[in-house]
Amino acid sequence: GKDNLGWLIVHSRTKACAIVDGPEARPYLDYIDTLQLNLKAILNTHTHPDHIGVNRALGPVLDSLDVYGAAATAADIPGLTHALRDGDTVWFEDVPIKVWLTEGHLNGHLSFILDGAVFCGDTMFAAGCGYLFDGPPAAMHNSLQRLATLPDDTLVCCAHEYTMDNLKFAWMVEPSNSELADRIRNVSRIRAAGGSA
Question: Which of 78, 82, 85, 77 lies closest to 102, judged by CA?
Fold first, then answer.
C-alpha cells in the first residue's frame, strides 16, 4: 500500500525482530537482510488485507515464526500461533508487550504497547482516527480514551500516513485556528521531503 507505514521491532541486544502489520513482505525482508536481523515474529493489529498481507506473502517462512493476533478473529489471521485477548502480555525476547483491545475500526482490533511506544494499527492517526467499519462510534471513543491514558511522550506508531488528509478535514471545521495552520505548513514541508508526519 502506498500509504501504509511499516514497523519493525528490533531487540538491540539479540538482533531478533518482529514485523507489525504490512501489506507485503519484500520491503521488510530486504531491510532485515541489510541489518542482518533475525525475524522471529509478526504482530497483527487487525485483519484487513493491508495488515495481514505480510503473513500471506511470507509463505513457508511463516511456519517458523510466532504470529500474534486477536483471538476474536483468529480464523482470519494466516499462520496465527498465539491468539490474544485484552490485557495479555506478549514476551518478545525479554521485552514485555502489553496487549490492549482497541475496537471501533474493526472488531478484534489490538494495540501493542512497549517501551514508550504504541503500535495502534488503524485506531489512531496524527490528527484523526480510523474509519469505523464495525464501530459503533462508542467503541472507537472508548479506544481513543484508553490510548489517551498513555504517557504524553509515548511514540505513536500508526499504520498509515493520513496526516495531511486529517488536517485538511480539521481545517474545514476550524479555518481560523492558527495552531492548525502552523501544523499544516509543517506537515507539508515534511511530506514534500518524503517524510512521515
Answer: 85
With H, G, I as helix, E, B as strand and everything else as coil, classify residue 165. Answer: helix
The cell for 111 is: 494495540
Could you tell me the CA-to-CA distances from 137 to 68, 110, 111, 134, 159 in Å, in that order?
Answer: 26, 17, 18, 9, 20
Q: pTM higher than 0.90 for the full model?
A: yes
Catalytic residues: 46, 48, 50-51, 105, 122, 160
Q: Give the strand pairing for 7-10 and 16-20.
A: antiparallel
Please write the tens of the pLDDT for every residue from 103-140.
Answer: 999 999 999 999 999 999 999 999 999 999 999 999 99
- Contact between residue 142 and residue 104 where contact means Cβ atoms under 8 Å apart: yes
Q: How far is CA 107 from the centre of its chain?
A: 15
